[in-house]
Amino acid sequence: MASETTGTGAGSTNPSPTHAPVSGTTAFAAVLMVVGGAMAIFEGVASLAKEHLFVVTRHYLFEFSLTGWGWVHLILGIALVLAGLAVFGGALWGRFFGVTVAGLGAIANFLWLPYYPLWALVLIVINILVAWALCMGMHREADAGLTA
After folding, report:
1. What is the tens place of the pLDDT at every residue in 40-88?
2. 138, HSE (Cβ side, Cα atoms, 13 Å)
3. What pLDDT does 103 receive?
4. Is the Cβ–Cβ distance between 74 and 40 less than 8 Å?
5. Which residues are registered as beta bridge partners of 18?
6. Average pLDDT of 12-23?
7. Over the stretch 123-135, which tens digit does the pLDDT of each residue have?
8. HEC letters along the chain
């Protein structure tokens, strides 16, 4: 009987705001977030450093200066890397923040398509996979009762 009162079992009623990334899908999302964020950082730095590297399309509906796009991608990349590291650390807020930043990254890269199409398509796919993996990881962990 003493072991029942001192043990911490699966029936613990104290939910933790942080938990380890217990599913492979969540770990996959965290890796993709760090890699995709690093790629977005490189994209932003390249846009800030060498504007002549990219083709500028005339009369594009979402026309910003390349410096503006560089800052957008740099900020989103840094946010995605930080969210990925938070997911590795087990922070629940990192998942929600990661889905939000990945969605914004996919939209930003869709708007970036005329400037660098192949790179933008790769980052769109990575961002969609991140959002899917984070949502699916939470779903699988909730079904298994592992989030509390």
Report:
1. 999 889 888 876 666 666 666 666 677 888 899 999 999 999 999 999 8
2. 17
3. 95
4. yes
5. 91
6. 53
7. 999 999 999 998 8
8. CHHHHHCCCCCCCCCCCECCCCCHHHHHHHHHHHHHHHHHHHHHHHHHHCHHHCCCCCCCCCCCCHHHHHHHHHHHHHHHHHHHHHHHHCEHHHHHHHHHHHHHHHHHHHHCCCCCHHHHHHHHHHHHHHHHHHHHHHHHHHHHCCCC
Which residue type does 86 have?
A
| Token couple for 94 | 């990192």
Structure tokens at 78: 């840094």
Residue with tokens 């840094």, as numbered in its chain: 78
Residue type, 88: F
What is the token pair recorded at 69?
């796009």
Which token pair is 57? 């399309």
